[in-house]
Amino acid sequence: MITKELWGASPNGKEIFLYTLKNSSGAYVQLCSVGAAIVSIVVPDKDGKLEDVVLGYDNPLSYFADGPCSGKVPGRYANRIAKGKFTLDGAEYTLPVNNGPNHLHGGPQGFQNKVWESRIEGDSVAFLYFSADGEEGYPGNLKTVAHYSWGEDNSLKLILTAEADAPTVVNLTNHVYFNLDGKGSVLDHRLELNASLWLPTDETLIPTGEVADVANTPMDFVEAKRIGQDIFADFPALKYGKGYDNCYLIDGAVPGQLSTAAELWGATSGRHLEVFTTQPAVQVYTGNWLKGCPKGKGGYEYQDYDAVAIECQHCPDSPNQPGFPTTVLRPGEVLQEAIIWAFD
Predict the structure, then answer these.
(1) DSSP assignment letter at 326
(2) Tens digit of pLDDT for each residue in 196-209?
(3) Is 309:296 a contact under the CB 8 Å cutoff?
């Protein structure tokens, strides 16, 4: 069952809608048209108690320009592009710099801060955003669709598609944050990644171009371990971001085919999350700077490490890194990527 309600209006008066997708067990997901955001995922714990397991806000206006980019689809390019510059087909493009010296999540007016068009399509909800040529410095008109469906098995499926009328670069994900216990620190959650390689970065979190093995480093989640086990280790990558904010390459990833990216276990709730994707990489961000973000549901004040984002995507700075999988989208091509979050 899907319901739609008017949730509010943007600062320029555009209507913001809230959708609720509920299955027969009573578990449900809420989505809103600001940034095609996941607002809530309410699923049972080991005793059957339903609880919201994602970071979010009661006030729809809090979804505009929030630091965490909570639950939203950033774009046109998720993650970072070094110094806000890239060259495509011999032409250099300059993008706004909004994260130290770098461009992050499509810039200050990225997709995550736009009200998307939206509608119910059968048993799913579709959000559409049209990005004009030159918006935030990117070439080409781009049409992006985020298509969500919620299953009887408590799995949320997101299909992201994009088409452009001129060569451009695109990297799409969802920036949802999880706390499988509902509230409190996630440092006692256990995380496992299907990734034996990661991308070292400079101090501004731009990849150096090196691909490194996680073995014998604090970056290793090949076997499940507590998120907090090594997070404060004396290791450059963890010092740069005050915790994990790093990209991992998914082992055995094949374009267009679903692979397991990650598994997450709550510390006390018994909840378990499996993440599947067609994307080649996953950025893990442990909520290192959540303190001071907008108040959450029920007025809850988030603290650092209160949630973890597992962002299935292409690699950061790919337009400047020829060794990484390409993020170039050309006319006549259709970008299509899937992410599935399966709860039990």
Answers:
(1) P
(2) 999 999 999 999 99
(3) no
